[in-house]
Amino acid sequence: MLTGLAKWWLERKAVSFTSSWVEAIFAGAKANSGVQVSTNSALQQTAMLRAIMVKADISQIPLVLRRRQGKGAVDAADHYLYDMMLHQPNGWMDGVEWVRTTIMHFAATGQAISYRNIDRRGRIRELIPIRPECAAIDVNTMMEMEYTLQLENAHQVKCGRDQVFHFRGPSWDGFRGLDPVALGREALGLAQATEKSQAQLHQNGVRANGLFKLAGKPPQEEKDRVREMIAATYTGANAGRPILASDALSFEPLTMKGSEAETIQTRGFQIEEIARLQGVFTIMLGHAGDQSPTFASAEAFFGAHVRYTYQPLIRAFLAALNTQLLTREERAEGLHFEMDTSELLRGSLRDRAEYYKAAIGNASQPGWLTPNEIRIDDEWNEDPSPRMNQVQFPMTMRDAGEPPPPTTPPSPHAGA
């Protein structure tokens, strides 16, 4: 059954979206734990929200349009998409905000859609993110994708594949990304149920950690008086105050029940389930489990996080950008988008100094970087000296095919 919010949304928007589709966003479906799980309720789970934000943190890496030049590449600053995607994809968002919003939609619902505002020359003027609940995807009889978009100004737009940027996740039908909330409904539902049970346990501001006993068989009036005294003295803001007992009133502490301890453990397990659902390491969600990471293991975890979470996501994102925002001719010219993750893997100053020392070469080992390339890598200006653009080689080495240096004949008087 649709919630009041979903009914209001349907009536206000007056669009052709099916009620079952809107229900998946707002009301969701009931899990075996007995709670309704929807995209909206999933975002209220701190572990799920944090996992989504962790993925969206790729927005800290600049999205740059580059042009291949020889074996390397240079910034394509002369192309109109360079400034637009790096700084301002639309009139109210900067590049970081657009990437972050796009990845949040993608991680939460399995796909992200932006409307392409195109000018008379056929160029993209703006990329306008569409909320997942405001986009419907269909496939017509010609196997062409059709989109029905509800813009923030209440205008409805029906458009084709060439009028949107559609970044979808793993797909079963090849058109729509799989919805992680629908697939992980049971894990999210159990997380919601355990959180709700814990909240109800503390709802009155006091935990049932002890038993008050009255001596003898007091009348009901005395029981009511003592109950009101306890409620006024030891609950709410007074919870945790020292308990005073007399001969007529005693207090017996209660130990934690096994079921309560199991509930706390279950909450930890559900964080791991949500991390597994989103494909991130639990340490990135602030949950180390039974193992407290050391500096060395934390660094290894973060390196694995970049390689196994960020890089596959960035590769898929760049593939979508290259194929949807660039024409075939532009790609043939070597234009492509880049997000350099090497900055995330940079070590300490000491580690970088050791790497640069080996890269520049020494008396027994040839180098592979020039001093100016190292300066550029550290965002320093180039040194104009010609020697700063030369790779260093040991004095004993020479290029293949180069004749050996002339030798000085021995003196006829040598050894005399």
TrEMBL record:
It holds the Pfam family Phage_portal. Residues 402-416 have a biased composition (Pro residues). It comes from the Bacteria. Residues 396-416 are annotated as: Disordered. This is Phage portal protein. It comes from Falsiroseomonas selenitidurans.
